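User: Could you go from structure to sequence for me? I need the amino acid at each position, not a summary. Structure tokens:
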């Protein structure tokens, strides 16, 4: 995979040439080069075994965070207003509480919340003290994490093939290495939808922990799947062509450093939980992914001023 054969080279050359023909000025700006690794500084708490105790702390904690975090407060108010006008469409599983649904809706709305939140998630796991003292999204992280788990547990246990496009960053990955995104990473069930959001790095991902949230999103047409920070992957494919990086990942289950960090004195030992389908050999076989890359030009998509869509989530 790290060396393209003639068939892959032909497919990628055709695809990249098509998209370079319609590159926007933004796409021609300098692109950062970053390593794709296990994101050791990410805050990856899954709140297993402490959800009820955590909920007892939420009321006061949420008031404090809302008062000091205008980005969070405004996004929550916008999501609540939209939710009050009528739910987006998918029936809500009984285990998913309205407040968790609101958190998912707030995450997907246009605005700065998802960017600010994920930037904080990527750094908050440096230490428990940093999480307690400098992470202003404790309530939101809890509600989003437990909401995703409620949705995941409500349906069949599936591994999915999803796609994620990133603009402005070319990731360096090594075959066979374990990696994590280290934040809540948005992907799409449709490779075309993901390609519109960015082509500097394009991921084909088998996720077993990611959750389809299209029915609870401001933008259901994106068919979004949200991957939690704790899911780890093996790098199974890497290719470069025309300044683009193409990476294929296969789920290795959940791997987290923290559990119930708000309530416990110290961070827990690293937890690794293979997904049941991985234990049973039910992993998703990838389609001929590189041949599925869109060959027709697709203009960049915008959600309005300041909107960046999945490329930044």
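Assistant: Here is the amino acid at each position, in order:
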């Amino acid at each position: 995979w790290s060396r393209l054969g003639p068939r892959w080279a032909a497919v990628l050359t055709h695809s990249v040439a098509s998209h370079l023909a319609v590159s926007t000025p933004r796409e021609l700006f300098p692109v950062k080069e970053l390593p794709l690794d296990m994101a050791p500084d990410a805050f990856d708490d899954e709140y297993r075994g402490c959800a009820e105790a955590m909920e007892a702390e939420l009321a006061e904690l949420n008031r404090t965070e809302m008062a000091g975090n205008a980005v969070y407060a405004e996004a929550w108010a916008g999501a609540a207003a939209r939710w009050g006008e009528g739910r987006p469409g998918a029936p809500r599983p009984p285990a998913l509480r309205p407040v968790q649904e609101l958190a998912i809706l707030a995450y997907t709305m246009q605005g700065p919340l998802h960017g600010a939140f994920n930037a904080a998630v990527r750094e908050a796991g440096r230490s428990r003290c940093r999480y307690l003292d400098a992470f202003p999204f404790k309530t939101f992280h809890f509600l989003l994490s437990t909401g995703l788990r409620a949705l995941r547990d409500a349906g069949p246990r599936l591994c999915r093939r999803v796609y994620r496009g990133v603009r402005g960053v070319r990731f360096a990955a090594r075959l066979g290495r374990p990696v994590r995104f280290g934040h809540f990473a948005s992907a799409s069930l449709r490779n075309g939808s993901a390609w519109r959001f960015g082509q500097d790095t394009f991921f084909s991902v088998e996720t077993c922990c990611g959750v389809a949230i299209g029915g609870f999103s401001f933008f259901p047409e994106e068919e979004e799947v949200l991957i939690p920070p704790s899911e780890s992957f093996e790098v199974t494919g890497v290719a470069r062509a025309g300044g683009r990086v193409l990476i294929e990942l296969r789920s290795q289950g959940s791997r987290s450093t923290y559990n119930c960090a708000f309530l416990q004195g110290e961070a827990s030992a690293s937890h690794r939980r293979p997904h049941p389908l991985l234990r049973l050999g039910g992993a998703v076989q990838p389609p001929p992914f590189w041949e599925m890359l869109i060959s027709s030009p697709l203009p960049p998509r915008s959600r309005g001023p300041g909107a960046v869509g999945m490329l930044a989530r």
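One structural detail worth keeping in mind: The first helix runs from residue 6 to 20.
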